[in-house]
Amino acid sequence: MVPIMQNLLLSPAEFDKIRYSFSEKEDNEKKFSREIIWSRNAQIFDQEFLTVPLDDFIKKRLPTCKLIRPVIFTKQDNNPDHIIATFEIERHDMNKSWYEQTNIFHGSIEFINDNGKGHVRITHTATETKDLAEEILRVQVNRYKSKGIIPQAVIPKKILFSEFTNANRFVFFYRLTNQLVNDTFSCNNIKDISIKPEENSTLPEGISWMNRMKKILISGESLDKTFFMKEKAYHSSLILWNIDAVFSFDYKGEKGTVTICLGFPDYNKKSQNAEFEITIHSLNSDNRLLPRDKKKLESHLLSEMDKQKSLVHSNFIEYLKEQKK
Fold first, then answer.
1. Which of 7, 41, 171, 303 is at 20 to 30 A from 281, Cα to Cα?
2. Is 15 strand, coil or helix?
3. Which three-class secondary structure state does DSSP give residue 121?
4. Residues 39, 43, 46, 51, CA torsion sign
5. Could you give the 3-state DSSP secondary structure of residue 259?
6. Which helix or strand (DSSP H or E) is residue 289 part of?
7. Dihedral in degrees, nearest 10, Cα atoms 214, 220, 224, 225
């Protein structure tokens, strides 16, 4: 009976297959984008630049990972001005239990040419996929520059924490939430904020109780209505770097609510060099969706919010220029 019973047990490989089929092992998708400038009449779908060589990078920088398949750019929706490369990596961590040693993470990178205005949109689910996407971006930009598709002096522009004053950061967040005007999203509520007082400054009397606090994480309902968020006089004395907002959405017939984290998640590590990112913390659809369809919807909503972020940021830059006049 022993051999028969042994055959009924799962092997490690079989266990991994089932685990990935029925669980969401990957981290939530995170998206960020950078602005670039294309040369006039640029053709970004170039047959010479579709496959990206990454073997040396993975060996040197990601030795515990392997690429599941080659990274190849294709047209998104058959549009030669919007190309995308998706990728998956398999990470082996020998420091973990045998059933946790192998994990699969995915990501993607998109190049978009919108009448000369350029966008690079990166999706990542782990540190390794982010690093890989950054390498793909570096390789492709250099390739495009070699053929004059991108001007030599152009550097993909990040949205960094240092770009804003304390007060302007509040304005930017409000424009992305309560003041967002579009057909897909409508902000219902701000439920979480990450905030702290400016160091080495005298706080106004109304928020002097924050003096000894290094970091304040607040959860609740309608936090944008709190006095220190609502009163502009306090904004220059407060550092706001993350907001979780609940939006109603209507996307191609699918409706529901989604909680989106907007902000600079690496602020505590990188301070002024932290880059703006977007991720979804939860999604509730009016229609019952299969896990795979729900994941696709989340990805589409993230892309839509990233588009809105780029538009809001562009308008915000113009607003700042007007303020200086």
1. 171
2. helix
3. strand
4. positive
5. strand
6. none
7. -110
